[in-house]
């Protein structure tokens, strides 16, 4: 019993020393101290937790996760243990995912889903060049999969590259003719490039799949406004207002596609 208390006391000393070293930025030395603390007292949840924190700082995410889970296993009723794990996941979850996707790709460069999900993760953090590259690789590896093409088109639309998006979306609707969102997005891209007849055809296909969709109805109104067909534009806007008046009024307040209608009393009445 005394020997066990001595081991615990010695473990606490190494744990304290590890904290001091970590605070000074001497992470490798801190890791050694925390490991010594764990060797002396494997049930020291604090030592596992502290070791996890240093691993996370060194971007050793797998090792950090293992230590956080060990600490939680040792003290499942500890609010702090749950809190520390949650902090790790919320702070480093995306970096952890990116590291693992990269590892998967290094092990299997022709893994399309790994490239796809890495691309989506890059997009989530605003790294668009990397996202476009990975989505392009996913498309090359599995050209029959419409999903990465649609995701790439969505990024291109966000960047205003409607011409490139059209090329991807045309292939998406070829692969999946009943894809409502792809037909809608294709219509939006055509409209933005001034290809109004092509936009109308794409919207008509989308309308056959989702006739009461708010975004479709609104964008059809925008198309007709741009095309110089005010009567049809107003008809579509009135239908959109019936679906969701508040949203439509909010969109119209800042949407330049309807500038040609601003002098029309019917348009003003929508507000």
Quick structural summary:
With 271 residues, the protein is mainly alpha-helical.
Written overview of the protein:
With about 270 residues, this protein is mostly helical. It contains 15 helices and no strands. It has helices spanning about 1-25, 25-40, 45-55, 60-75, 80-105, 110-125, 130-140, 145-160, 160-175, 180-195, 195-210, 215-225, 230-245, 245-250, 265-270. The mean pLDDT is about 95.
What Rg is obtained from the alpha carbons, in whole angstroms? 28 Å
Give the topology string: H per helix, E per strand.
Answer: HHHHHHHHHHHHHHH
Number of domains: 3
The termini sit apart by 81 Å
The secondary structure category is mainly alpha
Helix content: over 70%
Tally of helical segments: 15
CATH level-1 class of the largest domain: Mainly Alpha
Shape: elongated
Largest sheet: none
Beta strands, count: 0
CATH homologous superfamily descriptor of the largest domain: Tetratricopeptide repeat domain
CATH fold call of the largest domain: Serine Threonine Protein Phosphatase 5, Tetratricopeptide repeat
Chain-wise SSE layout:
Layout: H1 2-23, H2 27-40, H3 45-57, H4 61-74, H5 79-107, H6 112-124, H7 128-141, H8 146-158, H9 162-175, H10 180-193, H11 196-209, H12 214-226, H13 230-243, H14 245-252, H15 265-269
Helix pairs in contact: 1-2, 1-3, 2-3, 3-4, 3-5, 4-5, 5-6, 6-7, 7-8, 8-9, 9-10, 10-11, 10-12, 11-12, 12-13, 13-14
